[in-house]
Amino acid sequence: MRRSLGVGGAVALAASSTAATSSIGIGLGLMAGIVGLHLPAILGLAFLPVLAIAGGYGRLNRVDPDAGSSYRWVGTALNPWLGFLTGWVNILGTIVFMAYTTTVTGSAVIQLFGAAGVHRVAGLTLSPDSTLQCTAIGMVVLIASALVAVRGLDLAARLQKYLLVFEYLVLLGFCGYGLFAGDQPFSFEWFDPFAIPSFQALAQGMVLAVFCYWGFESVFSVGEEVRDPRDASRGGFIALTVMMLLFVLAGTAFQRVLPLGDLVGNGAQGLTYFGDRLAHQPLAALPLIALTFSAAASLQAAVVPTARGMYAMGRDGTLGPVWTRLHPRHRTPATGTLLITALAVVLALLSLVIPTVSSLISATVNAIGIVVALYYALTAVAAAVRFRHLLRTSPVEALRVVVAPVLGALTLLAVGGYLAWSFYDSADHFELAADNGWFELLVPVLMIGSGLLAAAWARWHRRAPYFTAGFGAPDDDLPAWSSPAPTGTGSPTGAS
């Protein structure tokens, strides 16, 4: 694959993957229903373990940039089974994310039509809460995003830069104005995490908030396509910090403008309602346009790292060679990109059994949050094991790449585990509903269980060298299977 990305493109990819506008537009209402008027507190608190884990990601990428990122690093430092599981749940989680984001994107487009006065098309009444309509429109955007990703990473990054500039200008303008124009009384208690009603609310709020930051690590999956590996690390840290500032600003502004009931009650249309409270048309439509751009950019930013992850797994022999086929001209994993898009389309169609957009978002976000906490924690532990020698040779550096990642991992495992238990304990029967705890818990269980079965198939049927070359190698003694493929030459499988 070509090394075509610089630090600006890395920031754009990481920021688009986290999709701040989408997280603000749909996530704040969900979190407010759990933590009340403590959005700034929970968003700031969740940033700390993610930042700690990001230190481990950055150091791992600096010494070993790889398209597989956490799949590769966990397999090398800890155990190939855990490494495969990390890559597998990351891929499945992203495909599920793409499936429900198609619905979110379609909902934003229909809301945008409504703001423009278009409420019926060909005799059909458009509804932003119709999962069928939203999914159909979103799938068109998803396919278009995948085709751009096939064309090249540099083109995708340039497109995302323009979208991000517009999104952030709109967010800063409306949220900044809302801080002063809002009529809800300001309170410093909003920033106090100890004032959150219960530990269960804290745990569930933390998982949802961590999910808002999810995606910054996607920049490390293009480590083989970044001109300097340090640019990927810089891009991830810059994007993560900007996300935190935007989230805290938006959480404060939303609570200044909207009463708690309105914030919770508007759910997936929270950003639209926020814009309507602050401005008249056509200015009130700007946040909705930004939300549409953010959802579309996040679809493209999701398919890019997922295709690279499966490319790395195919290159190691844990998945089939179809995932390693590169476009003959653009040198992107085109076949994998299109296959992943097809899988997301199929899953989006299956998700139509859940009747409303809000229910789909709630069930999926809660479930993926547990999986994200798991593979973030595994990657953080891998960094600590890989660089444990720094505890003796460089204690200051060890604080950043050993101690802090371990503390972040323990935090995420604690809140993720507690949330999983609360889901199990909240119901006494299974029901296909977003508020049924057993249904929410079933999603991460299926992801992990299918990962173990797929790992067993790769280990004993495919006989992938990934599982037999050893693990726990130091930085200067990596096993042969883990070396990045050489650039500039072709191979029968397309790994170049």
TrEMBL record:
It is a multi-pass membrane protein. It comes from the Bacteria. PANTHER family: AMINO ACID TRANSPORTER-RELATED, MEMBRANE PROTEIN. InterPro entries: AA/rel_permease1, APC_superfamily. It is found in: Cell membrane. This is APC family permease. The chain crosses the membrane at residues 30-57, 78-100, 130-150, 162-182, 194-216, 237-258, 278-303, 334-354, 360-387, 399-421, 441-458. Keywords: Cell membrane, Membrane, Transmembrane, Transmembrane helix. It comes from Kitasatospora paranensis.
